[in-house]
Design brief:
Blueprint: H1 2-28, H2 30-50, H3 70-89, H4 91-112, H5 124-141
């Protein structure tokens, strides 16, 4: 239950972050806002590590598969696309499309067990759930 509450909180924070990033992008530009967000995030992460809040070891970085470092590239792309999408489509519409994309991709990753996650079979119920979400997204996005 705690994990689901943390996930819900992260969704709340993502919507706020997207809104703040989009507001910044209107002032400085989309790519410039993306850069600023990444720098502030990096400084924040570094400060948390210096404060001793990390529970792992940076020295183990060589043990991670090469493709796990693509997360940094994806982070830049995500921030850029969210800033651009919210500026053009609005927070609710962009967030709805983001969540639908996340759920579809997550179902594919689960099904194939990519990146070391446990394989989770796809069922008619998951398919129906995705279709219902898509229908809800369509209702939210239609004007």
């Amino acid at each position: 239950m705690l994990a689901l509450l943390m996930a819900a909180l992260s969704g709340l924070l993502m919507a706020l972050q997207g809104s703040l990033n989009s507001a910044l992008g209107k002032v400085v530009g989309v790519l410039e806002a993306t850069f600023i967000v990444q720098v502030v995030g990096s400084i924040t992460g570094l400060l948390l590590l210096v404060m001793g809040l990390g529970r792992g070891s940076l020295l183990n970085f060589r043990e991670a598969p090469w493709y796990t470092y693509l997360g940094g590239l994806l982070g830049v792309a995500i921030v850029y696309l969210v800033v651009a999408a919210i500026a053009q489509a609005g927070v609710a519409s962009a967030t709805t499309a983001i969540i639908l994309g996340q759920v579809i991709t997550a179902a594919v990753v689960d099904y194939f067990g990519w990146f070391g996650v446990e394989q989770v079979p796809f069922s008619i119920w998951k398919g129906l759930g995705i279709l219902l979400m898509a229908g809800g997204a369509w209702l939210l996005l239609s004007r």
